[in-house]
Amino acid sequence: MVVAASVVVATGAVAGALSALDDRPGPDQARHPEVSASPRLAPLPAVPSASPSPTESASPTPATSAPRTPSPTPSPSAIRKKQERTTPVSSRLYRHPASQVLDWVRSHSGDPRHAVIASRIADQPAAVWFADYSPDTLTARVAAVTSGGAAQGRVPVLVPYAIPGRDCGGYSEGGAPDLDAYDAWIDKFADGLGSGEVIVVLEPDSVAQAECLSAGERADRFASLARAGRVLKAANPRARVYFDAGHSGWNAPGKQAGWLRQAGAASPESSDGIFSNVSNFHTTAAEVVYDRRVLDALGGPAGLGAVIDTSRNGNGAPPDGTWCDPAGRKLGRTPTLSTGEDRIDAYLWIKLPGESDGCKGKPGTFTASYAYDLASS
After folding, report:
1. Strand duo 198-201 + 157-160: pairing
2. Among all residues, which ones are annotated catalytic?
3. Please, how many CA atoms are within 13 Å of residue 171, restricted to the half-sphere of its CB?
């Protein structure tokens, strides 16, 4: 069955991301129009993959993932000479200074993969996840991110991920103990939003994955999500709140829109639109078409838009449906608030590239060999 984004909490405000995704093939990509130009990473020279460091997890790779044969490791100086190029970086989105990839870059300056990972992943702005139920410290942790963005005049992307029963009891089960506790948690989250511009990606999986809930449980969850949107936007009128639309290989647009409507996504008091492809691999072109269809079916104000996770979709979804750190994927379009596409508000890196799904490393932890594969493909 389909499962989407999931996360494992890291220390402090940043959480690692892990995903369990759609096991069905995506739609026929040839039917989708090409999206207009947006920032892309500059081409890389061919450089052999470095061998995994001994500190990385040796979690087994599923049989459906093609194994890779290690190549000889080039010297750090040889790699650096080949990688004198400029990677476009958003001037408006905020890069939080605390993340697993930045920790790795700071402590592995001599690693032959350092230049690629630093310039193509660590330098890019990415979302900050709040996936642990720690209400006593939540407001301060959110405020640390939003105030950091405000000080630089940049837009942070925050992901609250604590809905009860999240991931249908899968890899990322957990969250708040019940919906009353969740409502109180959201209140504390909202208290940290400040007054600057901020993007909130509200609860990945919470709508698209609601099939596992009973009708009554689903209605209660959707009521809490609608309330969450209202609370967030009331706390900071400049907050832009987006609701879970799954991805183009999951629910039909009409079905997804019906659920989203129940969750408050069509109401301007709660919502600025939808998000899709979190932790997934479907092409940007497919997501643009899908998101527009969902928005059409959703109704609501004309200003509702969509944001798309492009962190790992450069090669599209694996044809065999592999979801766990599949081989052959690469980074997608770089994060930007200027997509050039009608009703597509942003391309964002919501899933942090290099944080494992659980096959190339421990779930939710940064894995240098995986990051290097994504960045050098």
Report:
1. parallel
2. 167, 205, 357
3. 24
Rounded Cα distance, 63 and 65, in Å: 5
In the 8-state DSSP scheme, what is residue 212? G
Q: Express as a percent the part of the chain with pLDDT over 90.
A: 70
- CA dist 354 and 340 (Å) reads 27
Q: Rounded mean pLDDT of the chain? A: 81
Rg (C-alpha) for the chain, rounded Å, is 19
CA 57 to chain centre: 22
Q: What is the pLDDT of residues 156-205, one digit of tens each?
A: 999 999 999 998 877 777 899 999 999 999 999 999 999 999 999 999 99
Residue among 160, 159, 87, 94 at smallest CA distance from 125: 94
Buried-state track 290-300, b at ≥16 Cβ within 10 A, e below 16: bbbbbbebbeb
Cα torsion 328, 101, 279, 294: sign: negative
304: number of Cβ within 10 Å? 22
